[in-house]
Write a structure and sequence with these properties.
single chain, about 375 residues, Rossmann fold, OB fold (Dihydrolipoamide Acetyltransferase, E2P), 2 domains, 6-stranded mixed β-sheet, about 25% helix, about 35% strand, elongated
Amino acid sequence: MARVVLEHLTKVFRASEGHSICAVDDLCLTVEDKELLVLVGPSGCGKTTTLRLIAGLEEPTEGSISMDGQVVNEFDPKDRDIAMVFQNYALYPHMSVYENMAFGLMVRKCPKSEIQQRLREAAQLLELGGCLERKPNELSGGQRQRAALGRAIVREPRLFLLDEPLSNLDSPMRLQMRAEIARLHQRLASTMIYVTHDQTEAMTLGNRIAVMKNGVLQQVADPMTLYQRPANMFVAGFIGSPPMNFFRGTLVEKGTALFFHESASNGEISPNAMRLRLDDQAAAGLTGSVSRQVVLGLRAEDITDRRYAGDAPADQIAEVLTQVVMPLGPETHLQVASATHSFIARVPASARVGVNEKIPLAFGMRHAHFFDPQTQHRIN
C-alpha cells in the first residue's frame, strides 16, 4: 500500500481572459498507509482537483506529492500505481462486466490465468458473479458502481482514489454502497482517498476527514473530533445535520458566573434577548473574552423543550416562538425564533408542539462552542 504526503500543494488555473483561479492553496496533508481518508467540502472547494493532482491528471503549480517517500510529480499517471473510481462509472458500454474489469490487466499484458484468478476473487468480493457477461446498460446503478470498483480492485494498486462514486445513486443504494466500501477497505487493508460533498458519507466512512473550503484545508481529524471540537465556524456548520446553530452576542460577568447575552448582528440587544449562563468549565476558558462580541454555537440535540429536559437550570432556559414543526419519525425538529435569531431545536417524537406557540427551551450550555466573530476561529 502507500503513504501519501502532500507538501505545500498549490494548483492555479489560468483563464483565457488573464484571470486566475486558485483551486488548491498551499495544501499540506499526510495520508497514512492503509488509511481511508475522506476529502469533504462544498462544490468548488478543491477536493476533486486535489485527487486529480495525486493521480497525475493535473500538474501542480507548486508543491510536491510523495508516495512512500518518493516524489511523483514528474511521473505519468500510469506509472503511479493508482486506481481511480469516478462518479460516472466510466464503464465501456460495448464491453461486458468481465471485459471492463479485465481491460486494465490485459493492457498490462498480465497472464490470462492471473487475470481470471483476480476477477474471480473480485467478483466474489463484490457479489458480481452473475453479472460478468452482462453489458453496463443491463445493470442497476449499484451493480455498475460495484463493477467500477471491481475494475479498480483487480489492479491491486497501492492507492485507491474515489471521486464521489455514490452521488448518482438513490438514498437506499448509497447507504448500502457506503457499507460495502467500508467492508472493502477493511478486507483489502488498502490506502484510500475518498472525495465527497456529503458530510454524512464522510462521517460514516473516514478514519480521518479533511475539510476543505475555497482550496484551503480547514481541519483534518477523526470524525468525532470534527463534530465535538470543530476548529472554526465553517467546520462546525458543515459537519453535522442539521448544521450547528450560531448566536451572536456578548459575554457578561455577573458575580462569579459568566453569561452570554444575545444580540443582533449590529450589536444591538433586544429587551427580550436570551441571557444564558455558561457552564463553569467553559467559563474558565473564556475569561479573556469578557465584554467582547462572540459567536455561541450549539447543535440542535443540545437545545430541547424544557418539559423534556429534566433538571435544566433556570438560567439556561429561554422562551421562543415556534415557526416550523418538522416530524422526522424518531424525533422532531423545530425551527424557532428568539428575539434576534432563528434556529433549530430537537424534541422527542412524542412532543406535541404547534406552530406559533411559545415554548421554553433548555440550552445545554455544557456542550456550547464559542468562536471569534471576526476570524471565525474557535476561542475555547
